[in-house]
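Narrative of accomplishments. A recurring question from our advisory board has been how the design workflow behaves on a single, concrete structure rather than in aggregate. To address it, we present the structure tokens for one chain from the evaluation set, followed by the sequence designed for it. No filtering or post-editing was applied between the two.
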């Protein structure tokens, strides 16, 4: 691998949007670290992408464990010496169809926040220093329209709160990295045909991944601290 090859970490990369994002990034000549909780599934997907001629490495990561996240940072430094792109795609939707805030279990909320918010936060804390060392980085937080305050509805409390908090994290990271060449944005991929979205969803994974990949490869001087759908800014 040449020094000019960009390195990307995609979490939740063994299926759905994460897999398709990894594929599209690798097709652009980027070396993709496929981070997934299940090592065996990650290995299987890596072999599949390598058979397509793509440059990928599987990595077993538990985003909710700080030691696992720290180990990833150390491994990236040793393996590549740098990191260019972080796609925080790993997420859970444990309360789909839960109707009311009044009987939402706090444990579900806690578990959802651990993966959907504290995971991306810990990854930023561990990996942004690698980006700062070269003054280049692109962070994409995979959010949802269900986290939009301007269009907030009822039900699915844990998922909604977690995506609103993830959007806040995007803004905070972007503010603290202002003036650097590290851009941080949120994306709503839309309703996509994945294990989470279901077979009835109107969008293919290819369509869902398009804006994620676009944000992950933005040219210097592009927007930071924004929320995008279909390559266009949307309201918070």
């Amino acid at each position: 691998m040449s020094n000019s090859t960009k390195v990307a970490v995609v979490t939740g990369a063994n299926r759905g949007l994460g897999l398709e994002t990894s594929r599209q990034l690798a097709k652009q000549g980027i070396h993709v670290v496929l981070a997934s909780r299940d090592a065996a599934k990650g290995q299987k997907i890596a072999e599949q992408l390598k058979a397509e001629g793509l440059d990928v490495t599987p990595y077993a990561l538990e985003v909710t464990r700080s030691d696992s996240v720290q180990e990833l940072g150390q491994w990236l430094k040793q393996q590549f010496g740098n990191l260019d792109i972080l796609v925080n795609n790993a997420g859970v939707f444990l309360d789909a169809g839960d109707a009311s805030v009044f009987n939402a279990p706090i444990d579900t909320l806690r578990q959802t926040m651990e993966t959907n918010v504290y995971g991306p936060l810990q990854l930023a804390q561990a990996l942004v220093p690698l980006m700062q060392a070269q003054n280049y980085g692109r962070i994409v937080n995979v959010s949802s329209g269900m986290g939009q305050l301007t269009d907030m509805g009822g039900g699915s409390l844990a998922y909604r709160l977690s995506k609103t908090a993830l959007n806040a994290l995007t803004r905070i990271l972007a503010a603290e990295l202002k003036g650097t060449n590290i851009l941080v944005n949120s994306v709503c991929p839309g309703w996509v045909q994945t294990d989470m979205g279901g077979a009835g969803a109107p969008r293919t994974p290819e369509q869902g991944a398009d804006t994620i990949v676009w944000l992950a490869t933005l040219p210097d001087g592009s927007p930071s601290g924004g929320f995008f759908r279909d390559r266009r800014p949307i309201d918070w």
